[in-house]
Amino acid sequence: MSVTVYSKPACVQCTATYRALDRLGVEYEIIDISEDADALDRVRGMGYMQVPVVVAGEHHWAGFRPDMISALS
């Protein structure tokens, strides 16, 4: 399953998400929405107005969600 984290610089919840994914050994791609207008549109199209937005297969959520992250392992 591919995991994508939509993020922006200086985002505390994003950093916490990266650390939790790293601890579990989950590989992920980071996309900076401050540099990628298409990614920002994609996140808004999913109904989110905050980062991080994590897309894991068919599931997605916003914010630091340890419960959702642990379900990926």
From TrEMBL:
The keyword Disulfide bond applies. Pfam families: Glutaredoxin (PF00462). Residues 3-61 form the Glutaredoxin domain. InterPro entries: GlrX_NrdH, Glutaredoxin, Grx-like_ET, Thioredoxin-like_sf. It comes from the Bacteria. Keywords: Disulfide bond, Electron transport, Redox-active center, Transport. Electron transport system for the ribonucleotide reductase system NrdEF. Belongs to the glutaredoxin family. This is Glutaredoxin-like protein NrdH. It comes from Rhizobium mesosinicum. The gene is nrdH.
